[in-house]
Amino acid sequence: MERTDRYWVRDTDLASDGMKRIAWAEQRMPVVGAIRRRFERERPLKGVRVAACLHVTKETAALVRTLVSGGAEVSLCASNPLSTQDDVAAALVEEGVSVYAYRGMSESEYYECIGRALSIRPEITVDDGADLTVTVHKLAHRVQSPELSHVLTGMGDVQLAPEDIRGGTEETTTGVTRLRALEREGRLLYPIIAVNDSPTKSLFDNPLGTGQSTIDAIMRSTGVLLAGKRFVVFGYGRVGSGIAARARGMGAEVIVVEVNPVRALMAAMEGYRVMGSKDAAKTGDIFVTATGNIGVIRREHMELMKDGAILANAGHYDVEVSLGDLRSLAESVEEISPSVERFRTKDGRNIYLLAKGRLVNLVAAEGHPSEVMDLSFSLQALSVELLARERERLPSRVLDVPPEVDRAVAELKLDSMGITIDEMTEEQLRYVNEWKLGTS
Ligand SMILES: NC(=O)c1ccc[n+]([C@@H]2O[C@H](COP(=O)([O-])OP(=O)(O)OC[C@H]3O[C@@H](n4cnc5c(N)ncnc54)[C@H](O)[C@@H]3O)[C@@H](O)[C@H]2O)c1
């Protein structure tokens, strides 16, 4: 571990490996590249302090380098203790970014790193899961919480001034859910742009990115044949529907568990078996949670599972599979490989947990493919620009990405793929804006 005031990373000697992988990602992120070239010319973020709490991956590096090209001063901490790519963190340090992230950090180190990222006294926060933003709010509202002592250690003598924060962005569903709860209580202190909710993000990143990378993670860590397996997906939302489609594509028999009747109906009509969680527990071979909820796979399910069942989580936090229940059922736990643990139950079965119940696609694989992060991180870069450029501070609410930004990102992506689309004729434009014309 290497620790200075400006960075905490595993090993700065990994920087050249990291730079090669960042270049690989950037080659596949043409929209972020176009934004970066414009930022280099226009410098819209000149002098703006940005604290970012993101999975430290090669794609995140492409975003950070874009913000820096726009003139921002960036501090970066990890949004998960296990998802940091240490070579990428080292490469960013070499580029002059303050990085506080390494794979395998403890919970106290995780929060201390959030404190270090905040010590830049950010004007804009960029978050994935809302740990950074919620920390700012807990400090400002003087909410007592055990992790804050670590945050304060990380901040040292620095005092935060939330009124100086022009706004923030949020990358994922769980983060937006938390921040909407803060808004409902009337305690949100600055505007948040919900990047997650914009169509160019959630129609692509959530289903396609998580779908592919979750299957990738299961295959990398277990090598099991998916064809013929009973593959249970908990939550048929934006993420779960993508995982289900990819698992079906690999020849698995996919079973969906839902609590929302509309989503359950949709899964059934898209050809999946839909059943209650206890029936699914008896039937399944592989179980993946993607709900954003807590205690989704718990003792009552684990007791019914077959010998050899494999459990993984693709939701944001490691609360979807009840780890306490799994531990209490086990007489022994053995690490089979860095991403696979075997829990031997007292009645003699083996249940395998991947990635310690944390987001499997980032811990046991490399997260979303660069092509899809090109969309999400273009939206992030443009949302940061919007927050920096607004003369009047936006209202302290959870806000949508403006539709024109969404559209611009989609157009740039299509352009990079060599795809042209039609425009409506004058007649069609008039027709779709007309109410008098009907049956003729
Ligand atoms: N792993 C990743 O890279 C990645 C990427 C994007 C989002 N996420 C995370 O994935 C989670 C899901 O995101 P989403 O965008 O699909 O959300 P979503 O709201 O679109 O879908 C969640 C679904 O889970 C269902 N659900 C809730 N509780 C349930 C329960 N107890 N049992 C069964 N189903 C239940 C809901 O009815 C809903 O249909 C969030 O935590 C999000 O932050 C992870």
What's the topology here?
Blueprint: E1 2-3, E2 7-9, H1 15-27, H2 30-42, E3 49-54, H3 58-69, E4 73-78, H4 86-94, E5 98-100, H5 107-118, E6 124-127, H6 131-140, H7 148-155, E7 167-170, H8 173-184, E8 192-194, H9 199-202, H10 205-222, E9 230-234, H11 238-249, E10 253-257, H12 261-269, E11 273-274, H13 277-283, E12 286-289, H14 299-302, E13 309-313, H15 323-329, E14 330-337, E15 340-345, E16 350-354, H16 360-363, H17 370-389, E17 398-399, H18 403-416, H19 426-432
Parallel strand pairs: 2-5, 3-4, 3-6, 4-5, 6-7, 7-8, 8-17, 9-10, 9-12, 10-11, 12-13, 13-16
Antiparallel strand pairs: 1-2, 14-15, 15-16
This protein binds nicotinamide-adenine-dinucleotide (NAD).
- Per DSSP, the total helix count is 19
Estimate the helix proportion, in percent: 40-55%
CATH homologous superfamily classification of the largest domain: Adenosylhomocysteinase-like
CATH class term of the largest domain: Alpha Beta
* Unique bound compounds: nicotinamide-adenine-dinucleotide
CATH fold label of the largest domain? Rossmann fold
- CATH architecture level-2 label of the largest domain: 3-Layer(aba) Sandwich
Question: How many beta-strand segments?
Answer: 17
